[in-house]
């Protein structure tokens, strides 16, 4: 959430940012309501001052045994007017706060202005694209050949966008999860958390999924709970509404979780295989940091996610997202995309984002820099470290053999009892 004072002082900046993000929001209406709110506050303060004077005068008249009924009647009218204005003020503030929830974050000055994926800027590539002396298969074919990927039965049980993993391929995904958690906790300094997979509406609002992305979320009717679309929601909201003490930042947490997304409006896009599904697993990294360090922390977050793919020897590229492809809540975001030769496509497996104080304001998360200092809003960041099943798809396609087997990356073999390949 943006600071209302900032919007009031910089309306053109906020309007341009929303336009560049492709968001439609009526900033003038918010400013109109803000003026109304301040006018009401001014009138209420004036009336309360008049009431205080009247109260003192009534007390004096009564002490002197004089008639104060006329003044009492006038004071009652004042009190009724104040009560009415207080109600109007509450309604106005509620309307302002509801509209502020739809105002997107402002892109950082380093973010390229653009409208679509084509305007995202590649900043580096890592690894060599592998060459094959046979026709490479897409992951859904190789997965079926090794008896580990079962899309038809997933669809039969739950509908399209669901699947089963079986045998060693299920073990490969579990190995990936354990490897990533070990890497981030033992080498990158994150503290591991086991989190709730169901959260309340306030948590979803805090990280920016609601109201903007509500149609993409799975809601539990009657309970006021949502299935998380990412562990970011639970992790970032751990200290919502609190004031963190001096010396407690940076806070670095990671967690494994299933993720649930309806992907409303995405039908017909990337529907083959398991690259766009409604339920998937992911290891997520979250940072809560002091504002002046957040962009350095973003770079190290990106390096942490890249390390996963480097350890797996999977070629990838890093792109900085343009304004039009940037999420509603992010100020800057890097996407990491792994190459899948069977699909001849780059698959996004991680987004590393800095939200600055946008999420912290929404969840009223504050930090006291020094003892006795005024609390400030910290900056929040998150990044996939990394997401499955696209990483599984990339391993199947990059590590397949001519005879229809899959060579397991060396990094994962200790997590799979020394197994070096999967095949019938």
Q: Could you characterize the architecture of this molecule?
A:
The protein is of the alpha+beta class and 424 residues long. It folds into two domains: 97 residues, Helix Hairpins (Orthogonal Bundle), CATH 1.10.287; 306 residues, BirA Bifunctional Protein, domain 2, CATH 3.30.930.10. 39% of the residues lie in helices and 20% in strands. The chain has an eight-stranded mixed β-sheet. A three-stranded antiparallel β-sheet has the order 5-7-6. Strands 2-3 form a two-stranded antiparallel ribbon. Helix 3 runs antiparallel to helix 4 and helix 5 packs across helix 12.
One letter per element, helices H and strands E, the order comes to HHHHEHEHEHEEHEEHEEEHEEEHEEHEE
Discrete helix count: 12
Q: Tell me the name of the CATH class of the largest domain.
A: Alpha Beta
User: What is the architecture of the largest domain at the second tier of CATH?
Assistant: 2-Layer Sandwich
Beta content: 15-25%
Strands of the biggest beta sheet: in what spatial order? 1-11-12-13-15-10-9-4
Mean pLDDT: 95
**Helices and strands: which structural class?**
alpha+beta
Number of domains: 2
């Amino acid at each position: 959430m943006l600071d209302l004072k900032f919007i009031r002082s910089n309306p053109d900046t906020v309007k341009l940012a929303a336009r560049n993000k492709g968001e439609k929001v009526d900033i003038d209406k918010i400013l109109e309501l803000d003026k109304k709110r301040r006018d009401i506050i001014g009138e209420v303060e004036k009336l309360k001052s008049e009431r205080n004077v009247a109260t003192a005068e009534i007390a004096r008249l009564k002490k002197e045994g004089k008639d104060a009924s006329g003044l009492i009647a006038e004071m009652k009218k004042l009190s009724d007017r104040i009560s009415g204005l207080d109600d109007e003020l509450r309604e106005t503030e509620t309307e302002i706060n509801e509209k502020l929830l739809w105002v997107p974050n402002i892109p950082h000055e380093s973010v390229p202005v653009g409208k679509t994926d084509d305007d995202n800027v590649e900043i580096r590539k890592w690894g060599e694209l592998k060459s094959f002396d046979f026709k490479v298969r897409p992951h859904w074919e190789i997965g079926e050949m090794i008896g580990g990927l079962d899309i038809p039965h997933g669809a039969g049980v739950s509908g399209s966008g669901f699947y089963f993993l079986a045998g060693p391929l299920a073990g490969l995904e579990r190995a990936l999860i354990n490897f990533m958690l070990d890497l981030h906790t033992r080498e990158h300094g994150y503290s591991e958390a086991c989190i709730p997979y169901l959260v309340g509406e306030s948590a979803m609002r805090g990280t920016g999924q609601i109201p903007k992305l509500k149609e993409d979320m799975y809601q539990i009717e009657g309970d006021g709970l949502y299935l998380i679309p990412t562990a970011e929601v639970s992790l970032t909201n751990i200290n919502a509404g609190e004031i963190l003490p001096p010396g407690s930042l940076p806070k670095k947490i990671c967690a494994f979780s299933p993720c649930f997304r309806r992907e409303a409006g995405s039908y017909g896009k990337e529907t083959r295989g398991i690259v766009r599904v409604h339920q998937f697993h992911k290891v997520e990294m979250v940072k809560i940091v002091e504002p002046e360090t957040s962009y350095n922390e973003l770079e190290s977050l990106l390096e942490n996610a890249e390390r996963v793919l480097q350890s797996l020897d999977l070629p990838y590229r890093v792109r900085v997202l343009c304004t039009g492809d940037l999420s509603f809540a992010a100020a800057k975001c890097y996407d990491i995309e792994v190459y899948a030769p069977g699909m001849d496509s780059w698959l996004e497996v991680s987004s590393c984002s800095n939200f600055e104080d946008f999420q912290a304001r929404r969840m009223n998360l504050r930090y006291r820099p020094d003892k006795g200092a005024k609390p400030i809003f910290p900056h929040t960041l998150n990044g996939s470290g990394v997401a499955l099943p696209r990483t599984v798809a990339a391993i199947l396609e990059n590590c397949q053999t001519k005879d229809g087997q899959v060579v397991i990356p060396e990094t994962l073999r200790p997590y799979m009892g020394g197994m070096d390949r999967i095949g019938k």
